[in-house]
Specification:
With 688 residues, this protein is an alpha+beta fold. The chain contains eleven helices and 45 strands. The protein has five domains: 105 residues, Immunoglobulin-like (Sandwich), CATH 2.60.40.10; 105 residues, Immunoglobulins (Immunoglobulin-like); 104 residues, Immunoglobulin-like (Sandwich); 105 residues, Sandwich (Immunoglobulin-like), CATH 2.60.40; 216 residues, Aminopeptidase. The strands form eleven sheets. Strands 39-36-40-45-41-44 form a six-stranded mixed sheet, sandwiched between helices. InterPro entries: MurNAc-LAA_cat, N-acetylmuramoyl_amidase_3.
Length: 688
């Protein structure tokens, strides 16, 4: 019994091993099954081309003998074999020649009808076995196409000519396009206009990028009422295609009316612009303008049976009304022109105008945190306040000495302002704030300005003068003892030196200004005897003032007359032309003071520095004349080097004529010099 069991066990093991080897053999044979794949074309491939590449790969355990290509189960030809396919070789390394398993064949599609076809590849192995793969394709044929873009179907025109515009395509090329009106031939359209959109939509047609056509039919050939325009596009092969449109002609005049507002009405709130408009071609849009600025497009289609009864032949006369609500906040106060423009489908237009008087309260503004004349002491200052405008405030712009610094932040809560101005738009959030940095600004007086701009374009500004730290003044005793020597005169044995007299007045002016709290720097000192050339002397004085960023430059001089010892008086000199600050508005001109200078340049849009220079020059010469009895020879736009090239207010003072015996004595008198210094300092204090 034990022996029998042992025998049975051996038999079972044998059968199991036999089955295992049999299964392995079947698996191996299955793994070596022939394969045929079509890479191109893809499934449901469509083409207009005359040929098509059939490409793919095929493998079998015995190797590939041939690959036949069929179209609709009819042999088309034999593919080329042995094309490199390293990808297949890598994926199926145990197949014979799998690395060169590629095939390719080009099918001539001109032999086949338009429509769907089946492409098959029959791969025949060396052992005679066959493996087939198939794909569905579609052969397309380009057909003649034509389209009319203009006129639009069922559109209306009145008195203008008809623009016939569109495009045409033909696979053989376009020969001509005939234009017909009401079945009567009118002429040949111009072809060749750029239509890249059509070429993109229908690629492959000859001259597709230039497939546009156009033709103009004069209005006199159009019938009143219904018309039909047709284009017929003919290809070089004689094939034809056409397209047509129905349109209508009515030659009545365009009409428009404004019912509201009435002419010369006074308006203090939002208001309606309402009326009606007719055009023989139909109305496409109604624009509304205030003072020729477009403020909106009216809503069309308002019921107007009254207009229909009065003008029954116009298209859509029963829906010819328009309406638009205009917000008063967007319109500046005063007499304004409201214009309504109705545009027809044919491009013609009609207009109507009304005058209205817009009334609204004036805008208001205030600066709360900085007062006039305040010393900002070269710090960072919170510039705060409020601004109201009946239309609302759009922005608040900050300027220092007319130079734009930036926009303030707006919209801060101000219930106090709302209580004072309850009817103003957004008065409850009318506050503004701006951080004003004066650390890098020059010492001296500055003009600070806030400009509030309303939503309607109205402007309200607030300005004040502020100081920034201790003012620095450069006092220049003119000339030196060398190349820039001043004038000299000897009268009755007394020598008068301009260089010396300039210093004497300058020292007294320095002392007076210092006592007033100014910081004063001299361009030369009493103990110095510089001998620079004229050029280097002028450059040094200018450089000193600019490097110090002075708030004011005052140059002291005395005058002479070469030919007349009776000439007397005082004069001052400034320059409107400041090339390092501003070169706009520069012209060749004449001195407003009436003196003649060669090649004088005048700035018609002077800087703040130039304006202050002119004002100080006028004030000083007037004060010297009025207070001390000198002949007032006026202030002159002279363009001198030191007044022209210094980037701050700068003047030159001629303190009298040392060629005049009497005036020379006055100029040399110490008391008289002090009086002049006091007068000059007093005028400086008023402005700086």
């Amino acid at each position: 019994m034990r022996r029998l069991n042992k025998v049975l066990s051996i038999i079972c093991v044998f059968l199991f091993i036999s089955n295992l080897f049999s299964a392995t053999k079947v698996y191996a044979e299955t793994a070596q099954e022939a394969m045929t794949v079509i890479d191109d074309p893809v499934e449901n491939f469509s083409t207009f081309d005359g040929s098509m590449l059939v490409r793919g790969w095929a493998i079998s355990k015995s190797g590939l003998k041939e690959a036949k290509v069929y179209i609709d189960d009819n042999l088309a030809g034999y593919a080329s074999l042995g094309l490199a396919r390293p990808d297949v070789g890598k994926a199926y390394p145990n197949y014979v020649n799998s690395n060169i398993s590629g095939y390719a064949y080009t099918v001539d599609l001109s032999k086949y009808q338009e429509g769907k076809h089946k492409v098959s590849v029959q791969a025949v192995s060396a052992d005679g076995s066959i493996k087939i793969a198939s794909k569905n394709i579609e052969k397309k044929v380009r057909k003649p196409l034509a389209n009319l873009d203009s006129p639009v179907g069922n559109s209306h025109i009145s008195k203008q000519s008809l623009l016939v515009r569109g495009w045409a395509l033909n696979p053989s090329g376009l020969r001509y396009v005939g234009v017909y009106l009401n079945n009567a031939f009118k002429g040949y359209a111009t072809i060749g206009e750029s239509r890249t959109d059509i070429d993109a939509a229908y690629p492959g047609y000859p001259a597709g990028k230039n497939s546009g056509i156009n033709y103009i039919i004069e209005n006199k050939y159009l019938n009143e009422g219904q018309n039909v325009v047709r284009i017929e596009a003919v290809g070089t092969d004689g094939s034809k295609v056409s397209d047509e449109r129905v349109f209508y002609v009515y030659r009545g005049e365009a009409r428009i009316a404004i019912d509201e507002p009435s002419d010369n009405s006074t308006i203090s709130d939002d208001f309606l612009v309402r009326g009606w408009a007719l055009n023989a071609s139909g109305i496409t849009k109604v624009n509304v303008y205030v003072d020729n600025a477009n403020v909106g497009t009216a809503t069309l289609g308002q019921s107007r049976d009254d207009v229909k009864r009065a003008y029954p032949n116009y298209p859509d006369a029963d829906k010819s009304g328009y309406i638009l609500t205009l917000r008063q906040s967007g319109i500046s106060p005063g007499v304004r022109e409201v214009k309504v423009e109705a545009i027809g489908s044919d491009g013609t237009s009609s207009t109507a105008i009304r005058k209205v008087n817009i009334i609204k309260p004036q805008p208001e503004i205030n600066i709360d945190t900085v007062r006039d004349g305040q010393d900002l002491n070269r710090g960072q200052v919170n510039l705060g306040g409020w601004a109201v405008n009946y239309s609302g405030v759009k922005s608040a712009k900050i300027y220092l000495d007319n130079n734009y610094l930036g926009d303030a932040n707006i919209g801060f809560s101000r219930p106090d302002v709302k209580a004072a101005y309850p009817k103003y738009y957004q008065a409850e959030s009318s506050g503004f704030n701006y951080t004003l940095n004066m650390q890098d600004k020059s010492s001296g007086i500055h003009n600070l300005k806030v400009v509030a701009i309303g939503n309607d374009g109205t402007v309200k500004e607030k300005s004040l003068n502020v100081y920034n730290g201790k003012r620095l003044i450069v006092v220049d005793p003119g000339h030196n003892y060398g190349g820039d020597n001043g004038a000299e005169r000897t009268i009755d044995g007394v020598k008068y030196s301009e260089t010396e007299l300039n210093m004497q007045v300058a020292v007294k002016l320095q002392a007076t200004l210092t006592s007033m709290g100014y910081t004063v720097v001299m361009t030369r000192q009493p103990w110095q005897r510089p001998t620079d050339t004229l050029s280097s002397s002028l450059q040094a004085r200018t450089k000193l003032a600019n490097d110090l960023k002075a708030d004011l430059f005052v140059s002291i001089h005395h005058d002479v007359s070469d030919n007349n010892t009776t000439t007397n008086g005082v004069s001052t000199h400034y320059s409107s032309y400041r090339p390092s600050l501003d070169n706009d508005g520069i012209v060749s001109g004449n001195d407003p003071g009436g003196w003649s200078y060669d090649d004088l340049k005048i700035d018609t849009t002077p800087t703040v520095q130039a304006q202050l220079s002119r004002q100080l020059a006028s004030n000083v010469v007037n004060a010297l004349g009025n207070s001390l009895g000198y002949n007032n020879l006026r202030a002159h736009d002279h363009g001198l080097y030191v007044t022209r090239n210094i980037n701050t207010p700068s003047i030159l003072i001629e303190c009298g004529f040392i060629s005049n015996p009497n005036e020379a004595k006055r100029c040399a008198n110490q008391d008289e010099q002090q009086k002049k210094a006091d007068v000059i300092a007093g005028e400086i204090r008023k402005l700086f």
